[in-house]
Amino acid sequence: xxxxxxxxxxxxxxxFEPANAAQVTMYLCxxxxxxxxxxxxxxPAVVFDMLFRLLRSKYGADNVVYARNITDIDDKINQxxxxxxxxxxxxxDKFTAIYRENSSTLNILSPNLEPTATGHMxxxxxxxxxLLENGHAYQAEGHVLFSVSSFEGYGKLSGRDLKDxxxxxxxxxxxxxxxxxxxxxxxxxxxxxxxxxxxFGAGRPGWHTECSAMIEANFGTTIDIHAGGQDxxxxxxxxxxxxxxxxxxxxPLARFWLHNGFLxxxxxxxSKSLGNVKLVHDLLKDWxxxxxxxxxxxxxxxxxxxxSENLLSRTRTTMDRYYGTLRRLSDVTASLEDAPKGFVxxxxxxxxxxQAMAKLATLFKQANMAKTDADRARVKGQIQAAGVLVGLxxxxxxxxxxxxxxxxxxxxxxxxxxFKARQDKDWAEADRLRDQLNALKIVxxxxxxxxxxxxx
Length: 456
Ligand code: AMP
Ligand code: ZN
Fold this sequence. Notes:
The protein is α/β, with parallel strands linked by helices. The protein is 46% helix and 14% strand. It folds into three domains: 4-260, HUPs (Rossmann fold), CATH 3.40.50; 268-400, Orthogonal Bundle (Isoleucyl-tRNA Synthetase, Domain 1), CATH 1.10.730.10; 405-455, no CATH class. It contains 15 helices and 15 strands. The strands form five sheets. Strands 4-3-9-10 form a four-stranded parallel beta sheet. Strands 5-6-7-8 form a four-stranded antiparallel beta sheet. A three-stranded mixed beta sheet has the order 12-11-13, with no helix packed on it. A hairpin with a 4-residue loop joins β1 and β2. α14 runs antiparallel to α15 (427-439). The relative contact order is 0.11. The mean pLDDT is 95. The site of adenosine monophosphate has 18 residues, from α1 and β9.
């Protein structure tokens, strides 16, 4: 089945064919590890993990190389290290470990490569030197800048016109820039900022340079797929293209550019600067990682997705139902099956997860209605094969329900203690317990012999 993917650069859905089917290459701009990641940051990680799974099934697991970098040089990291009076590695090690742990809880496969900026300092310096040599970059006041007017293709990915960009640029642009749109490849560090030696003076690289150097070091000139969130199209990806193409004599950096839409809170993008974030680290206290994953896949990856408690509870209810079906089938040995054609076709149509999830619902319905053992074995096999492609329903149903059972036992005890407090006329204790139960969204109905409860 052919795989069609929407390519931002050509602005259309195109059939995807790798340059070399024995080594399909994909790169995702990964997290900047300065603090806890929010659930919006995990949208690209989950969506492109699903694409990674699909490519593995299509081309063979050994033939796909997926790199997701760790941005461990960044001004936000420097600021956090300065505030806490520690080396940047203390911050980046901590948040890299947390990011990896959260990723595994969301059933995100480890990428084949996880390059870091600090691990590619020589490659970055080398790339900047070549840009200086071939006239695409210049030095000014301790900085090295990329000259955007030297690259004819600048603006093609984002569809921006360089003249408009220059006209629209604000006036308080650094005086050392020849053009306001020129961007930093290298900058000097203050005494409190981390610094590396280089032929252009001590300092540190700009963010855009990190990805170009990491891609070149790990893959060479051109990769099949470059992915990231929509906010990276400009300037980050535009600048990556400019740097890479100018050291590679115009050879394209990526054959396909894929961008996920935003995760929103209300009408706004979830972002730290707006202060409307839900940290994955916090969400995991209340929700299984698989619920977060499923919720992120409910919308098409290029469409906006509004995050809400309601989305999470609806997702959890659906998953309870599906895992309930799998629990009823625990004694059935699944036969070895492919994922159903309709399900795969939906994913191969630019990762259409809403349609794929609708097919999954049909599959669970079929599982509930299956009359014979052979039917049950077949449908269970199909569910498993579909689950591997999207990274869902891979847990033992008992593990899924365990958390509920643990919760229920605790709630039973609280409800009984509240009933006893009321009998003892200990109203303060009864109120305290009621408030706690309210906070857990538990609805209580009092009867003469005890109270019953349900989730609200
Ligand atoms: P950062 O850690 O800030 O470098 O971001 C990591 C990734 O998360 C990038 O690919 C961003 O485009 C993406 N991202 C950040 N905020 C959102 C959001 N609200 N919705 C979807 N993707 C986002
Ligand atoms: Zn990048």
